[in-house]
Design a protein that fits this description.
This protein has 25 helices and eight strands. A hairpin with a 6-residue loop joins strand 1 and strand 2. The C terminus is likely disordered. It is rod-shaped and about 125 Å long. The chain is of the alpha+beta class and 617 residues long. Helix 5 packs antiparallel against helix 6. It has three domains: 208 residues, Arp2/3 complex 21 kDa subunit ARPC3 (Orthogonal Bundle), CATH 1.10.1760; 186 residues, Hypothetical protein af1432 (Orthogonal Bundle); 147 residues, GAF domain (Beta-Lactamase), CATH 3.30.450.40. The chain has a six-stranded antiparallel β-sheet with strand order 5-4-3-8-7-6, with helices on both faces.
């Protein structure tokens, strides 16, 4: 900021110095009343400048008259005319931008370039009479005048904006100033034409020239009025368009059981991270912004029982889930965005090392927006409650991002994300490799497990032969299953027809009291999802079945839940909870599913699960 102030002050001082020298020169060498006419035309056309609403575009022919003043009467006359032009243009600025320092600097940005360009013009082309024919050397001097005036003027402005916005000078110049060179040369040749007319008759020249600003002003005023109407209409259409896109995104969120806050957070943080990584192109920023909002639109084609499954997806389910990225890109490709949104959506699950999907591309071949979106989306997902697990602490989520840097995620993006969160990445500690059991040991263990399952089920069938109540049923199940599984808590959820939900009908174990007795709607929480889909879940986070206030003090970390299906609908859910993560195995799931089938197949036993008067609410 100090450099910016010093630059503006230096530019202003230079402008004042040139203006003072020019005024003294004009006092010593008066140039006549014709110059005052050009000054008046310059001020009048500057005041009549038209600006297109909501766009950085303006129309003015004041440069033509100030350039004519410089070419006809010398550098001093041109510099003072340009200074007055800058003063009038500054008076048209918005009140918030019109500070004394900014006005003085704007005057200097016109005064100094005009004086330098005119001085070089006369040094090369000579101080010849106004009516002298345009010789090759004079034409060269005229072109050089235009190049210097444009280059110095645009360069001074670009440097000032660069200091203010902290953006590279070249980027500012190319994006906003390089395209206006034609207007400068248009002004130069217009001034030359005015000089040619003036040599025949000053009065005729004034009669022909003075109406031009008025005609141009009225013509452009009409055009700008029509443009303003169109811009207003486009603004309304754009607001409807954006609202429709956001509604589309909300529909995806509703199906995915994700809050609208998640979408908005991801969008805001993605744009913030993109700017931190020096993504300055406004079209690319808009593409990233739209893609962050709509990156999961393809999930509309994913069945809900897969989308919201509170547990690990099977390989077949995972293949279906992976389709959402290309499907989303296909949906968005037909919308006709004015920027590249579809490629970002298609590749936001590609991995830095090429192991991602759908195309397996790697490194810089992955669009920048996709790499940024992948990191932000992962962090927000990890720190939000999801159907398959509760939210993590920020430190845990950052550790996961660090571990995945260089494999799943672009290291440069991860580093920038850490900086935005005020953290430094620590070296991740590699866990020692797990021991691999021998095939003989695996075979022996499997045989022993099969024997235990058969023995347990045989004993369970005998014990259940004389069950008289639901409570007794629960006691027998727990007594026979608990020795074979690492569970510390067991809950039998029964169907509650009054609420179309399930509710704990039997609880036992170390943390059974943490499970709320209130009904759980079908599809909600872990056991509710099992009841709604008739599918088992293994090693999902046990805390998903707990109320949020008690999750932090619970030691439960994994769950195994299987449905009991009677007459085509779920009548109950058997859920085991363990204190270790990933505590359950396929063998444990087979045992509990066999017990569930045993209850469902025995009419005498199943009647205890279908008593309509069951008090579970």
């Amino acid at each position: 900021m100090q450099k910016a102030r010093a630059y503006v002050l230096g530019g202003t001082v230079c402008g004042f110095a040139v203006a003072i020298v020019s005024i003294l020169d004009l006092v010593r060498h008066p140039v006549g009343v014709q110059w005052l006419i050009l000054v008046a035309l310059t001020i009048g056309s500057s005041w009549a400048t038209l600006r297109v609403p909501s766009m950085p575009i303006s129309f003015s022919i004041s440069d033509t008259f100030s350039i004519a003043a410089a070419l006809m009467f010398g550098p001093s006359a041109g510099a003072i005319t340009a200074a007055l032009d800058g003063l009038v243009l500054s008076s048209r600025m918005a009140n918030d931008d019109r500070t004394i320092g900014r006005v003085l600097f704007n005057m200097a940005t016109l005064t100094v370039p005009m004086w330098v360009a005119a001085t070089v013009f006369f040094a090369i082309g000579g101080n010849q009479p106004v009516g002298t024919p345009l010789s090759p050397i004079r034409l060269l001097a005229l072109i050089l005048f235009g190049a210097l005036y444009f280059g110095l003027n645009s360069g001074i402005v670009a440097i000032a904006v660069s200091f203010e916005r902290r953006v590279p000078v070249l980027s500012i110049w190319r994006q906003h100033l390089s395209g206006v060179w034609l207007t400068y040369f248009g002004g130069i040749f217009g001034a030359r034409l005015l000089i040619v007319l003036a040599q025949f008759s000053t009065l005729d020249a004034l009669i022909l020239v003075i109406p031009l600003p008025v005609i141009l002003y009225v013509t452009f005023r009409h055009a700008v009025g029509r443009a303003e109407d169109q811009i207003d209409h486009l603004g309304k259409v754009n607001r409807v368009y954006v609202a429709a896109i956001e509604a589309f995104a909300h529909a995806v969120d509703a199906k995915d059981q994700v809050t609208h806050d998640h979408t908005r957070r991801v969008q805001d943080q993605t744009v913030h991270l993109a700017r931190a990584l020096a993504v300055n192109d406004e079209g690319e920023i808009q593409a990233i912004k739209a893609a962050a909002l709509l990156h999961d639109v393809g999930k509309l084609a994913v069945p809900e029982h897969i989308l919201n499954k509170p547990g690990r997806l099977t390989p077949a389910e995972y293949e279906i889930m992976k389709r959402h990225a290309p499907i989303g890109a296909d949906i968005l490709s037909v919308i006709g965005f004015p920027y590249a949104v579809a490629p970002i959506v298609r590749h936001h699950h590609e991995n830095w090392d090429g192991s991602g999907y759908p195309d397996g591309i790697s490194g810089d071949a992955i669009p920048t927006g996709s790499r940024i979106l992948a990191v932000v989306d992962c962090f927000d997902a990890l720190t939000s409650d999801r159907p398959y697990r509760p939210r993590m602490e920020d430190s845990e989520a950052l550790k996961i991002l660090s571990d995945r840097s260089g494999t799943m995620y672009d290291p440069r993006v991860v580093d920038a994300f850490f900086r935005l969160h005020g953290h430094n990445r620590d070296a991740a500690c590699a866990a020692p490799p797990a021991a691999i059991p021998s095939p003989a040991l695996v075979s022996a263990t499997a045989a022993r497990q099969t024997h235990l399952e058969g023995h347990t089920l045989s004993e369970l069938r005998r014990a259940l032969s004389d069950v008289q109540s639901l409570s007794q049923l629960g006691d027998i199940l727990w007594a026979h299953v608990s020795p074979q599984v690492p569970a510390s808590t067991f809950v039998l959820y029964a169907y509650d027809s009054a609420n179309d939900a399930i509710a704990p009908a039997y609880k036992i174990g170390a943390e059974g009291d943490l499970v709320n007795d209130a009904p759980v709607l079908l599809g909600e929480r872990l056991s509710g999802w099992v009841a709604a889909t008739s599918q088992a879940v293994m090693n999902s986070d046990a805390r998903l079945d707990l109320d949020e206030p008690v999750r932090d003090r619970s030691r439960l970390r994994s769950a195994l839940a299987v449905p009991i299906v009677l007459s085509g609908r779920v009548a109950a859910v058997l859920t085991l909870y363990a204190e270790d993560a990933n505590a359950f195995t396929d063998a444990h799931q087979r045992l509990l599913e066999a017990a569930a089938r045993l209850l469902a197949d025995d009419a005498q036993l199943s009647r205890h699960l279908s008593v309509p008067a069951l008090s579970v609410s």
